[in-house]
Amino acid sequence: MMESNEDLYEESNDMIITDSAMRFLRETGKWGKMLAIVGFVFIGLMVLGSFFVGTLMTPFYEEAGVTFPGVLVGGLYFIMAVVYFFPVLYLYKFSTQIKPALYQKDSDLLAIAFENMKSLYKFMGIFTIVMFVLYFVFGVGALILGAAMF
Question: Which of 66, 122, 131, 139 would suit a FRET pair with 22, their CA atoms being 20 to 30 Å apart?
């Protein structure tokens, strides 16, 4: 009697990672680490800029005749930096854990690396859904406001 692939998988919890898959994961880790480091640098610049952008932008607002507190722009930059921090952190954790997991053939460390990758994608998915909802709400609000003005 022939066993199906599903039966074989249930009997054996081992998964074979081919050499090419390991090579792809190592390369993914290298690129991910580079992107995460660049991300951390930009987060630092955003936080630093959040303290100065309000002060620097206030004269432009005043010249344009707009009464807009520059502190709000700085706060927006800071909020964007905080939101950006989490996916960059997940990417960095994945990238730094995947290499030793593969070299040491450590299944637990590999699972932790993939958990961070899952967290990255989950965060980005939820963030994308939230942004679509906000775009929709602001779009409907703009249509209602525009219709009310006529």
Answer: 122
